[in-house]
Amino acid sequence: xxxxxxxxxxxxxxxxxxxxxxxxxxxxxxxxxxxxxxxxxxxxxxxxxxxxxxxxxxxxxxxxxxxxxxxxxxxxxxxxxxxxxxxxxxxxxxxxxxxxxxxxxxxxxxxxxxxxxxxxxxxxxxxxxxxxxxxxxxxxxxxxxxxxxxxxxxxxxxxxxxxxxxxxxxxxxxxxxxxxxxxxxxxxxxxxxxxxxxxxxxxxxxxxxxxxxxxxxxxxxxxxxxxxxxxxxxxxxxxxxxxxxxxxxxxxxxxxxxxxxxxxxxxxxxxxxxxxxxxxxxxxxxxxxxxxxxxxxxxxxxxxxxxxxxxxxxxxxxxxxxxxxxxxxxxxxxxxxxxxxxxxxxxxxxxxxxxxxxxxxxxxxxxxxxxxxxxxxxxxxxxxxxxxxxxxxxxxxxxxxxxxxxxxxxxxxxxxxxxxxxxxxxxxxxxxxxxxxxxxxxxxxxxxxxxxxxxxxxxxxxxxxxxxxxxxxxxxxxxxxxxxxxxxxxxxxxxxxxxxxxxxxxxxxxxxxxxxxxxxxxxxxxxxxxxxxxxxxxxxxxxxxxxxxxxxxxxxxxxxxxxxxxxxxxxxxxxxxxxxxxxxxxxxxxxxxxxxxxxxxxxxxxxxxxxxxxxxxxxxxxxxxxxxxxxxxxxxxxxxxxxxxxxxxxxxxxxxxxxxxxxxxxxxxxxxxxxxx
Length: 677
What we know:
Layout: E1 7-9, E2 15-17, H1 20-33, H2 39-56, H3 64-77, H4 81-100, E3 102-105, E4 125-128, H5 131-141, H6 146-163, E5 167-169, H7 170-183, H8 187-193, H9 200-209, H10 220-239, H11 243-250, E6 254-256, E7 265-271, H12 274-280, H13 289-299, E8 302-309, H14 311-314, H15 316-320, H16 326-336, E9 339-340, E10 349-355, H17 360-368, H18 376-396, E11 401-402, E12 405-409, H19 421-429, E13 433-436, E14 451-458, H20 459-465, H21 471-497, H22 505-512, E15 524-530, H23 532-540, H24 548-572, E16 576-580, H25 584-597, H26 629-640, H27 655-670
Parallel strand pairs: 3-5, 7-8, 8-10, 10-12, 12-13, 14-15, 15-16
Antiparallel strand pairs: 1-2, 3-4, 6-14, 9-11
Helix pairs in contact: 1-2, 1-4, 2-3, 3-4, 5-6, 6-7, 7-8, 12-13, 16-18, 18-19, 19-27, 20-21, 20-23, 21-24, 23-24, 26-27
C-alpha cells in the first residue's frame, strides 16, 4: 500500500496529499462515457496505478501529469482501450480549456493567491487559470481546512469548465465560491467573504450627476469621497460593530458616527505650538504658513471636525507691532486656512477656537511684544470683531472662498468682553461661527485628546417606544439604548487598538504633537443626547419651558442618561462622556425614521401632525419669544452640566436677542451675575 505521506505536485506547483479515490473517480467517469459502470473495477484499476506510483516514484514526488500518463498506460495494458480513449479525450479537452481560459484580475498589485473583491475594469489584468489560487484564498480568507478548500475549488473549476467560457472575472469566481459555501452550510463564512462596494447603477449616477449634498456636486473630489465613504461605511457596519448595535443604528435608536473613516478619529482638538509654527513662517510671517502646515497634518487624523487652539497667540506678535493693521492680520489668518468656494467643503471642517476673554498666554505674548497691559483687552476685542467681519466678507465676495469657522469660548467672560458678541452672532447666522458656553470638563478636552467616536442617542424615539407616556417607561428605554451606545464605543475601541504601526491614528497623533505634549492619552467617546425637546412634546405636547411637568421630565431624562453613561464607563473602563449637539443630517434622519415607524406620533394628543410639530433639535429649543430668557438660559445650563462642551445651538432670530441669550447662558453656567440683567 502506498505511504500515507505520499504527495502529488499540482500544476501550480503546490504539493498535496495523494488520494487514490480521485484516480478511481476519473477512471469511473471515463468508463461511464463509453457505456461502462463497474465502480469496483474502477477501484481495482486505481489500486494498480497506485502500485506503479509507489515503485516508480519511491524517492520523488510525481506530478499530476505523471499520474495521468500512468492511468492511460494501465487502462491500455489491462485491455480497456475504449475507456482509455475516453479518458485521453477528456484529458485533452480540459487541457485545451485550461490553456485558453484567462482570468481578469481586478488589481494588478493584489498579492498572489488573494481574490480581489472589486471588479475594476480600468485596472484589469489577465492571468492564467489557477485552481490553486482559489484554494489558497479559501484557506486564508475563509479559514477553511485545506481538504474542504480543495473540494470547493474543484467544484468551481468544474462549473467554469462546463460553461464553455474562455474568459472569466474574479467577481464571477467569487460568486461561484459563495454559492458553494452557502450550499455546504457555511453561511457564517460568507460574512468574511462578503464583497463591499457600490452597485454599478449608483456609481454611474454619481459619475453623471455628482455627489448629493455637496457644495460642488460635479466635482470629482466630492464624487470620489462619496464612493470611499459609502464603501467604508458598509465595511464598518459589517466588520466593526455587533449586529444588535448595527440594528439600533439602522432603526434610528442611535447614530454611529465616523462610519466612513474606520482608520481616523471622528474629531480632534489640537493646540498649535506657537514657537514651532513661527519657525515655518516666512519673513515677517504674514501668511501664517506654520498654521497652514499644522492644519494639513492634523486634518489627516480627523474625519468630521478639526478644532485648532492657539491661533490667537500666534497672531499676538503681529497685532502688537506699531501701527499694525488689525483687519489685515485677521484677513491673513483666515486666508491661511481658507478653501476655494467652488470646491466641496473641507473634511474635516477646520475651526479656529478663540476665548472671548483674552487668555493668560495671549496677555503674556502681547506683553512680551511690548504692548501696554491696558491696551490688551481693547486690541483683542477689535481683532475678534474684525475676524467675524472678514469671514463674512470673504464668503460673500463674487469669487468667494470658504474661510475656517470660528468657535468662541464664553468661559471666564466679563461684561466688557460681551461687546464683541453682536458681530460674532452675525457671523454665526452666516454659518461661520459658533459659541461654546461652559467651562471645560476636567480631563475631557486636553490638547491632543481626540474624539474617537460619537454615538448620538435618539431621546425622541425612546419616548415613542415607551409603552406609556411617562417618565419611568421612557427612562427604561434610555438606559437600554445607552448600553447599546456604549457597546458600539467598545467595538470601535477594539478596532482602533488592532490597527498596526503607521495605520494607527494614535501613532500619527504622536508625530504631530510638539515635544513634551501629552499625545498618548486614551481620548474620549461621547454619547450625544439628541431630541430632548421632541421627547417632551411627544409625552406632554409641550416643550420643557412651556410646562412644569415637561420641565421636570427633561431634567429627569438627562439625569438618567448621565447616570447610565457613568455606569457603562465604569463597567467597560471606557472614557465615556455625555454631550449635546448634533449634525443637522442626524436630526433629519432621526425625525424621518421616527415619523415613518411610529404613525401614532402624527396625531398624538389629538392634534394633526404636519411634520414640524416635534422639533428634533440637538437639545432644548428656545426662541426669541421666550417670556423669560434668563430662566431659559438657566435651564440650558442645568441640562448641560457635566457634559462635554459643545457649540450652543442658535435659537434666536435677531443678533441682539442671541447675544443677550448667550450672555445669560454664560453667566448661568459660570455661576456669576447675568450680564444681561
